[in-house]
Amino acid sequence: MMKKIIISKSRYLAGLQCPKYLWYLVNAREEIPGPDFSTRFIFSQGIQVGEYAKKLFPDGIDLGKVEDMGMQLVKTAELLEKRRPIFEAAVGTNCVYSRADILRPSVRDQWDIIEVKSSTQVKAEYIQDVAFQKYTFLQAGINIKDCYLMLVNNRYTKRGEIEPAKLFATCDISAEVDEALTGMGNRVEDMIEAAGSPEPPEIAIGRQCDDPYTCPLKDRCWEFLPENHVFNLYGNKDKAIDLYSRGILSIEEIPEGYDLNLKQQIQRECAKSKKPRINRGEVTAFLEKLNEPLYFFDFETFSVAVPLYEGTKPFQRIPFQYSIHVMESLDAEPVHHDFLATGDRDPRRELIENLKEHLGDSGSIIVYYEFFEKGVLKELAEAFPGYRSWVDSLMPRIVDLYRPFGDFYYYNSSQKGSASVKSVLPAITDLSYRDMDIADGLSASVYYLYACGHYKIGEACPAPEEAEKVRKSLIRYCRMDTGGMIHILRGLRDSLDTGAGLS
Ligand code: SF4
């Protein structure tokens, strides 16, 4: 006898992305890797935003703590009689089950569904999410009138206590939801069938593996690809999908006549020659732009949905750390400065005061991806207008070390189509971020929030020794970013003598 399969909202959304993902979710959940530390932080943001949304419905009744599915259904059925807002209202039939963030009484016997998201924009997957809820509620005999998204309003500025009425922007998505309902019954049936099969369906890898989210099974499904595969081609994935469908898996195998843009042609050339390619003229011009002393500079920032500090907005970037290596010349001994906020107050004023001491009056300020550092500096100048002219004076000094790599003036196949500092560093030097406790910017921001008690695991703040350990890892990480840039710049210069490529 076939086992009974219920399609829940998370299963439905997984099934829309890929039937194979749905199959694992239903039949072999233990084989799906769990969310990492940074992803769990993003989930926690959603929970925090949801709590603020509930404050807008003071007569609401919360079923969020009821864990047993049967009990959720019973309690919801009881509460529907009361005609009051219900948080986490649950309904189900013999094949679908769903909960609504907020079920609000509308006219007569009708109800509205309100979905709360810690995001500032309507996304296609949110429409599908709410459409599935509406479908389930209708199937369960509950009359739904309108559907709304409550999104975070990024124009809100914190003044005093958080004001939930201003923190959110509500958006009527009823028409889009009704459109997405078309064919839902058939889709649900197809999903039940796919999930009920004894083996996972054969699904070719493709665009769906990263759309709308990176599938947690990606490492497993993509394992068979060769090291330098066609999905590493720079740019959108159309060509990779076309090549893959023709059985061409590695960049090296792409035929000469195939339509590639200049950067992609460089990738094929490097894959075949097994050597880096250097555009000597452009790299020389880049190096000649540099003025000594050299300041290698990097910020770390965090952003949270519910602003922490006075005068800040949702998701505003708050710089909390920087690292600077100063060198009289590229071969001189670097002098290091850093700043890491204490975490008990808005770090920005103290940070900009220190930064002014450390960035000197002249010499190139070398950053990796200037839009980020310039953007954060301008936001600091807006918050602290007394520093505006100083910040303006920094702009012409900023040189973007990303450029020679982003423009493929230097390219090595081991970068796999990426010009990020994490890809370039091991390609041009023998250094890498591989063994570091904190190895990317998102993790740095989440660990910082954790160390200073703004992101709690359960209800607990980290013990002081644990917080201190995190702080040391943060300092090591940010120092690696600027120290790594020194090695990248030296590697770029040295490649003019040693590498292959254009003259
Ligand atoms: S990695 Fe791609 S093919 Fe594999 S289950 Fe996920 S979406 Fe489907």
Order of strands side by side in the largest beta sheet? 1-2-3-4-5-6
Mean pLDDT: 95
**CATH-defined fold name of the largest domain:** Nucleotidyltransferase, domain 5
Q: What is the helix content?
A: 40-55%
The count of strands amounts to: 14
- Distance from N terminus to C terminus (CA atoms, Å) equals 71 Å
Low-pLDDT residue spans: none
Number of discrete helical segments: 19
* Beta-strand percent range: 15-25%
CATH architecture of the largest domain: 2-Layer Sandwich
Chemical compounds bound to the protein? iron/sulfur cluster
CATH class of the largest domain: Alpha Beta
Gyration radius, to the nearest Å?
26 Å
Biggest beta sheet summary: 6 strands, mixed
Number of structural units classed as domains: 3
Structural class by helix and strand composition: alpha/beta
Q: What gross morphology would you assign? A: globular
